[in-house]
Write a structure and sequence with these properties.
The protein is mainly α. The chain is built from ten helices and four strands, in the order H-E-H-H-E-H-H-H-H-E-H-E-H-H.
Amino acid sequence: MAINVNKLLEAGCKVKIFMANWFALTSYNVSLRKVIDVCSYNTEMWRTARMRLDEGPIWIMGAEVELVRSSDEISRDLRRYWPLALKVARSTNLSEVTKCILSSKDTRPYYDEPKSLFSHEVFTTCMHSAAILSRDEADVWLLDIGQRVSNKVAELYREREAAMREDPHRPVIALFHGVLPSLLEYPENEMFRDPRWAIYMEDTEWEVGRAMRKAFPPGTMEGNPCLEYIRQIIFPLFGRF
């Protein structure tokens, strides 16, 4: 994310990072205070990863990047956001949402049961889509690959609304982060919290070396997890390996 945000800044874009703290509450049984703490933690990780964040206080307008919490943004626009979220839910066929969610799960490397579906996933998808639709000032969205479901539902909603008004709709332009592969040969047979899955921000130099030494090397360039780490992180940051 830090690499992609810096690319947008270099291209002259003004970046606003939408910290989806309210949406996290639909998936995890934690307090909003803890989620906000994680948002602050993520911000410090991005600084460490060389994202060009303003050095001033967090959550205010900076020189290049603005960080906002979804709870703050939605609270300022309650009369528009929640009716829009309900309208998205009413106008979207449940089978369409289910199909989008399950197809997205199939491509995520850390999912063990791609055919399982929970009610909160449908609810969160409608909330995400409403957030995308309610931000009229956004020309481009930079999303996690798992959020393409919400982007697709938002685009379907806009197409239907435009058709009803016989009016051309403004497309939702979205860019997506890549997903680093698992370092394990058969991740579906391993525990999700197995430290061998990936390299984490808190890992020491020794732990990084251990993860790379124990990584599954297929012997080819295609599907090689070590080469993907080099291609997606090392080359963009340092230009060489």
